[in-house]
Amino acid sequence: xxxxxxxxxxxxxxxxxxxxxxxxxxxxxxxxxxxxxxxxxxxxxxxxxxxxxxxxxxxxxxxxxxxxxxxxxxxxxxxxxxxxxxxxxxxxxxxxxxxxxxxxxxxxxxxxxxxxxxxxxxxxxxxxxxxxxxxxxxxxxxxxxxxxxxxxxxxxxxxxxxxxxxxxxxxxxxxxxxxxxxxxxxxxxxxxxxxxxxxxxxxxxxxxxxxxxxxxxxxxxxxxxxxxxxxxxxxxxxxxxxxxxxxxxxxxxxxxxxxxxxxxxxxxxxxxxxxxxxxxxxxxxxxxxxxxxxxxxxxxxxxxxxxxxxxxxxxxxxxxxxxxxxxxxxxxxxxxxxxxxxxxxxxxxxxxxxxxxxxxxxxxxxxxxxxxxxxxxxxxxxxxxxxxxxxxxxxxxxxxxxxxxxxxxxxxxxxxxxxxxxxxxxxxxxxxxxxxxxxxxxxxxxxxxxxxxxxxxxxxxxxxxxxxxxxxxxxxxxxxxxxxxxxxxxxxxxxxxxxxxxxxxxxxxxxxxxxxxxxxxxxxxxxxxxxxxxxxxxxxxxxxxxxxxxxxxxxxxxxxxxxxxxxxxxxxxxxxxxxxxxxxxxxxxxxxxxxxxxxxxxxxxxxxxxxxxxxxxxxxxxxxxxxxxxxxxxxxxxxxxxxxxxxxxxxxxxx
Length: 655
Known about the structure:
By secondary structure, the chain is mainly β.
């Protein structure tokens, strides 16, 4: 998310002096849910950085860093916003989780050691992540004093619609003032859209229970609104921290809107707040006991979800009238799953150690039934299958299979989208665990876009022996029979190209990586680009954003999984990790312009399944010729060489 910015706002933060704090710092004496926290924790090895330096791109994703002297500006259910003194690029979110051993109060001064991440588009430090080797936390939070909430930076809605300005103000406390500001609309009774008649500003209750505390009907005038600037689901939002952060105005502006929208603000059940709950997985076991079927829901965050506003509806065998309906209850924290099974004992016979949150006969789909996650009022929030369609023989039929949502999907959809799902056999079912990376099709089943399931999992048709290439589907790609379009050219300043992709032929298979190379004579701003994967011939791709800068002659390595990557290359640390890097030989990868979506460079062909094509790289490395210095928006076979296994794998080294 971070970008290089040169912004000057007239408002400057004035942080109040902090008084001494009587609470004990988190120094090993505090006991969390699992015992003492990081006893003897030594942070001397970590460089002390400022938030401004982190946001300027000086820190790689996944690096553990130390930041001192932050002031907490807002505390939510799973973390808090904090900031340094500064007008821009001074704020960052600290993700603690819902059961953190220590969460500071608004106004506290804190020092934080944590892993730097960009989660759902919001830059974060994660202090309570567990080290897989030692079992201790990788970081910590120390409260050094307490004081007052930071003074807000005053902005107007138009500034927050500018991505560059909004980016620089993330996690900072802001104040929006407008004489014509009013509530334009309510979003599922939870979030509000404010407007001045020209510019819209979303306001989210993610930092406190604003839904019950703030009575804001459509058309309500707003004198001012304060809060921390957060980011979720593709937009920046103002998150008020207390009821006093939103001040209603005097009189009602002439909006032409009704003053009573009929939104239920009474007792439960109510329409769900900002419906972000989604269906993550459904399993129909291929072996007995058949009643071990389960459906898994997932809350992609960032806030806690009230389940009492939802229900699960099953439509059997193409029915358009509900076969059965199950109302939900309770709450679900950000990043947590909710598992419903027909029979818990039978489910545990397939997945020992798994647990169910709810048992119901509604969970009885056998491959051709549609499941809908809807509100109590009947609004479709998410769907598995197609209403009115018997799934037998359809691309989404899950008979004797588990159908799993791709880990890159972070929001529900009211219409069925096959590219968001993949299939696995029962052995790969994962109750109580999401997100889950799509498996290699050669290992565990079919991904939508292949031949499609018809009751059993077809074998992958990709070659399993020698790698693809040559004039037939074996060997290496043909050598250059002429001068390629880029060969011998002088690269323009800052030419970014895809230089290599590797799909390891040995376990762990998630050691996959893609490498970019700056073939130009000047540094490249990576935030101008994104990587998009088109799986199995689809034309509907999934993307990740890039950030930071890449100097001339340098590489940028993005791995699927850090641990698996370093199993193959122990001495190399990738620049970025993301599950989108999961091509298994027949997927197309595109380097795209982040603003326009235009193709800059490409491996493979969009809309073409690579199985049997000259560019298929199953269990192989596909490497750009060292003489190619310019990107190409069309696939050119002669610019690439495919070699088996990891023979030519050299992440971080090109040409």
